[in-house]
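RECORD TYPE: protein structure
NAME: Aldehyde dehydrogenase
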Amino acid sequence: MTTLTRADWEQRARDLKIEGRAYINGEYTDAVSGETFECISPVDGRLLGKIASCDAADAQRAVDNARATFNSGAWSRLAPTKRKATMIRFAGLLKQHAEELALLETLDMGKPISDSLYIDVPGAAQALSWSGEAIDKIYDEVAATPHDQLGLVTREPVGVVGAIVPWNFPLMMACWKLGPALSTGNSVILKPSEKSPLTAIRIAALAVEAGIPKGVLNVLPGYGHTVGKALALHNDVDTLVFTGSTKIAKQLLIYSGESNMKRVWLEAGGKSPNIVFADAPDLQAAAEAAAGAIAFNQGEVCTAGSRLLVERSIKDKFLPLVIEALKTWKPGNPLDPATNVGALVDTQQMNTVLSYIESGHTDGAKLVAGGKRILQETGGTYVEPTIFDGVSNAMKIAQEEIFGPVLSVITFDSAEEAIQIANDTPYGLAAAVWTADISKAHLTAKALRAGSVWVNQYDGGDMTAPFGGFKQSGNGRDKSLHAFDKYTELKATWIKL
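PREDICTED:
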């Protein structure tokens, strides 16, 4: 555990040298156009630096280098045991540079420094090392054949992977994709969000330092409608992986059809139900989890428990516990290690969250906690964690992903009604169930149309469990051995003996 204070972090922030250039073929480089955009910290509105604004010309350079490197076999045909060792070194370098990476993450997207240092960076490093450790333990298959035939089922790296990652967990989401994509031998072009590109740019050099050949990992900062679109339409990108909004996910599917039918794997939005039955084993624990499920990471979480479904018979007892628990989640300066709620990522996102809060008022929901912008004098973008009671599932705040700390409380009278309400959104990313009845837990979990269901907890799981959604929350899975399916081609070889 670090002993750094807020003053220490602020001094480090003043001394920090920020790299804003793209990374192509093992070198930092300006965008071909020379264009840049400003990187503004949501902590206090300061200018962090100018970032290369890549476009189609940069995408072409990166794809050409990635393809040439892939075809050379320097990484793609390297023995799995050697790729494993390199990926573990890569993970070790993230740990070695943990404080620098955490500071970049916090300044860039506003999350608390303690979260960046103790959750995001270790989680990113683990994603790299876990995938690397697995790669020499994944076996191919021999088909059941007649005695004079031999059928082989083998996996090969898909080739050039475009990875477009979101701004809310910039480093960890990148590494969820880089881990299996690199471990299987692909070349990767990483497009971080323009809202939080700094850690992606930094780790590109660490990959080469770890021993990953130049050209295997390229990083292109820039906007989705420029460089992101160029990668999605490029005929020499074999696979596109994406985490972000459902709206953009749908557009990427169109781009695939308009180009080379590249495989597109999407992890999109969520409106996750957190269902608390009257027989929940520990209402206090459920209340604290409900507060954390909406306030953690400022509510900028695709699995945020943004709909709290409470059995009517306990609502009057349970809701005050949630309101009280939420008081422990207070926005503050993200460079203070004691802060557990930081700033929203930028002014645009803050205004979006505030507009949803206004919508809740307009539609007749009852505000029972929070609901305001605060700490305006800092120049940062801070919004109080907010609870609306009396929400109908048809309301805008219950149907649309807010991506901010706004909780909708909805009551139900039976398990069947809870399941109906829970499933009544376009999304299906995650859900939670609180009950002491093991049969009810299993039956409800089976009925929920969600990729992850947690029982008597919120946000359980680790690298061994797949992560992804049903319905318009996307397809494919990050984490676990299932993630490797996205980055490999399956080949059948049938041999006459």
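COMMENT: The domain at 273-462 is CATH 3.40.309.10 (Aldehyde Dehydrogenase; Chain A, domain 2).
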